[in-house]
Design goal:
- By secondary structure, this protein is mainly α.
- The chain contains four helices and two strands; from the N terminus they run αββααα.
- A two-stranded antiparallel sheet has the order 1-2.
């Protein structure tokens, strides 16, 4: 089974962070740099943009993490933790 098929099935064709279903792409969670599904998260353009530019975070967008942080996928857990850490000055993210 191809990597893209594995990720599509796992994510149910939704962003694994916010559940958006448009223009999805695989993001490899640093420090990993391989094509292993266990090291990747399926994300939408909004999440990807804010992951890559943490100084431009929209705190309201990330309220979605209250659900995605409970994912069984370690890469999703790591990204949820990292984003919540970036948002720690907001009471709801603590």
């Amino acid at each position: 089974m191809s990597l893209s098929t594995i990720l599509e099935e796992r994510s149910e064709n939704k962003c694994e962070l916010c559940s958006a279903n448009n223009e999805l792409t695989a993001y490899t969670v640093p420090p990993k740099n391989d094509d292993n599904a266990d090291h990747q998260v399926v994300v939408c353009p909004t999440c990807l943009s804010q992951i890559e530019n943490p100084d431009q975070l929209d705190p309201n967008h990330w309220r979605c993490l209250n659900e995605s942080m409970w994912s069984q996928v370690p890469a999703v857990q790591v990204m949820a933790y990292r984003q919540l850490n970036h948002l720690s000055k907001h009471d709801w993210a603590q």
